[in-house]
Amino acid sequence: MQIISIGAGILVTLFFLIKYFRTFKNLGYLFFSVMVGVGVHLAIKEIAATISLFSIFLMPHDQRPERISTDFDILSLTILYISIMLLISLYKLYKKSEVFENFKNNQPVIPLFSVKDFKATSDSNWLSFIRKEGQEKLELFFKESRNYAQLAFYIAAGIGFKLGLSDMHEDDYYEFEYFVLAANWAFFFIFDSWIIMHAYSENDRRGILAKHRKKVYYLNILLFAVIPLGIIFTEEGNISALFSNAYRLKAVFTITLLLGLTLAWRHYFDFNKYPEPEKNMKVTETAAA
Amino acid sequence: MYFAFVFFLSFLLLLIIFIGGFIKLKNYVPAKSLVPLLLLIACTFSLTFWAGLGILGEVVSKMFGNPEGPVAGFKTIDSEMILLLVTIIIVVVKYIPSMKKLIKSIEDIKAFKAVVPEVNVLSRKEHKERSTEEWIALLGKENGKQITNLFIELRNFAQLGIFASLAILLTSQFINVSPDDLYASVPTSYIIGSIIMFLILDDWNIMHEYSMEREGNLIKFHRRKMFVINLILVFSGLIYLLVGKAGSSTGLLPIFLILLIANFYWRHFYDLNKYQDINSQQAVAS
Fold it and tell me: Over the range B24-63, which residues count as b (16 or more CB within 10 Å of their CB) and which as e?
């Protein structure tokens, strides 16, 4: 299953990389393509993990291992739900990026690690796109990208949460039972709220309400700060113990990186940042001229 | 002593809402339609208040009344009880501004009545006698904005009423069962019910906020979802009352039944979107 999920991730990455490169001639879009691929890899991996977790119900009673806790079941089901939503979002993203097919850009190729060039050309790329295809199509694409990135962020947070729980000592687990239960449900509510907000933003040009944007923004920051700290402190309770455990160190590093990258990606595609993109870009162009 | 005080306070609140509301609104709305409306509002609100304070008292007495100290006392509290308390607090917190907005939207109809004086907006009998087309025509008029706001607020209030009625139902189990029997008497379905109700309440709040921005419009999928969920909530509430312990132990069965059904009826009668849908279909046809 690991090979299938990695293979699917690579295929999706290549697909989107070719699509973006053909359109914008900018290798900086490799980052977005890789993130879409990483999202697919995580989603497939987590779906398989949850199915195998619950497959114990198919086993004969005498062969079943000891049942895991209810809280862990809830978390696994939440991640399964997010993963399915992410795969649905991938399909929508694919459909919404079909508009790139008609868009040809004759600018020279922008090299890969030139962040400055990427930033400078990014806005003009979107502006050219708006002029050719219309703002509405770009809005839909941005909104779906934002949704995809947000879901990928939630999967990363869920995996981090699961890692923290799975390594917890049994005594600690019972000590913090209420906290774990509350955090588990809070995570589900946060994700569920996002699904509704996105549904309305998709159906309405006004997008997400300012109040909800702030709420999601602060919750993202909170999750980004709390999840790695949770993994660090659930076992030994101090940072020095972290460096003696290579597996845990690797887990903290990977989760922090994943959360950080998906968060950066999600905020790049925050369309509400550009309430009137055409107007803003015109101002930028005039200033540059 | 505490529960007697809470009961007295809730009864006082009921009277204040009913009498105060009647005095405030009697000039705008006909008395025959004002009485059931205010009764529904006053009963649902004061009973939710009663249930909230009741369960809060239980939690506090367990936390601080335990000889081993607050922390040890806290451990004895069922986590679902806290979740239910949070749900009730949210319902009450949402209820207060919702009731204010509802009363304001009823007052705003004064301006509307000046334009169409013969229409008794809140008379149920009038609603039935006059056809759906008349409502659609009213919504389409220049002052139809007031009617739209009224519909939005009534829908929200009634939806919160459904949650409140169920919260009271679930709370009655806690208030009347002794702490020692609590674990033994709380079934899994009850725990799931508490959590799901909290989740749906949270979802509804977001939907309502977006619908206000969209002049009452909910996404079709969400409208269907809420309808099915409300049906399930009402039927599961009824089944729980009939076969569970709550009804027989508290004797509040008739109140729960009336509140649940009345709120459900109001919620779906004032579903603005069904009128808007017909309106837009007629506009396309013409």
Answer: ebeebbeeebbeebbbbbbbbbbbbbbbbbbbeebbeebb
Runs of H (alpha helix) within B65-187 = 70-75, 79-115, 124-129, 132-140, 144-176, 179-185
List the structure tokens of A56: 């114990």
Name the nearest CA neighbour of A231 among A196, A264, A257, A199: A257
SS3 of residue A192 by DSSP = helix
Q: Which of residues 182-221 of A touch B (CB under 8 A)?
A: 182, 185, 188-189, 192-193, 196-197, 199-200, 203-204, 206, 209, 211-212
What amino acid occupies position A230? G
Inspect the interface and report whether the beta carbons of B214 and A185 lie closer than 8 Å: no
- What type of residue sits at position A71? D
A26, β-bridge pairs: A110
pLDDT given for residue A88 in this prediction: 92
Residues in chain A with pLDDT < 70? Answer: 24-28, 55-72, 102-125, 167-178, 234-245, 269-289
DSSP state of B215: T
pTM score over 0.80: no
Query: Per residue, what are the HEC states of B30-56?
Result: CHHHHHHHHHHHHHHHHHHHHHHHHHH
Q: Alpha-carbon distance B284 to B280, whole Å?
A: 6
Contact status, residue B161 vs residue B40, Cβ threshold 8 Å: yes
- Chains A and B form CB pairs within 8 A to the count of 44
pLDDT tens for each residue of B122-152 = 555 555 555 455 555 655 565 567 777 777 8
What tokens appear for A196 in the block? 């509704």
| Residue pair A134/A54 in contact by the 8 Å Cβ criterion | no
How confident is the model at residue A5, as a pLDDT?
81
Is B210–A200 a contact, with Cβ atoms under 8 angstroms apart?
A: yes
Q: What are the pLDDT digits (tens) for B4-51?
A: 777 778 778 778 877 887 777 666 655 555 677 777 778 777 777 776
Question: What average pLDDT score do residues B76-98 get?
Answer: 69
Pair B55, B175: CB distance under 8 Å: yes
- Report the C-alpha gap between B217 and B205 in whole angstroms: 14
- 3-state DSSP call for residue A110? strand
Which pLDDT score is estimated for A57?
A: 65
Rounded Cα distance, B71 and A243, in Å = 34
Q: What is residue B115's predicted lDDT score, i.e. its pLDDT? A: 43
Task: Please give the ipTM for the structure prediction.
Answer: 0.73
Give the pLDDT score at B131.
44
Over B228-261, what HEC string results?
A: HHHHHHHHHHHHHHHHCCHHHHHCCHHHHHHHHH
Tokens for A241, please give them.
Answer: 């113990």
Question: What are the tens digits of pLDDT across the range B191-205?
Answer: 666 677 778 888 888
Residues with Cβ within 8 Å of residue B243, at least 6 apart in sequence: none
Spell out which residues of chain A touch residue B210, defining contact as CB-CB under 8 Å: 196-197, 200, 204, 209
Q: With a cut of 80, say whether residue B283 has pLDDT above it.
A: no
Average pLDDT, chain B: 68
H or E element at residue A202:
helix A177-203
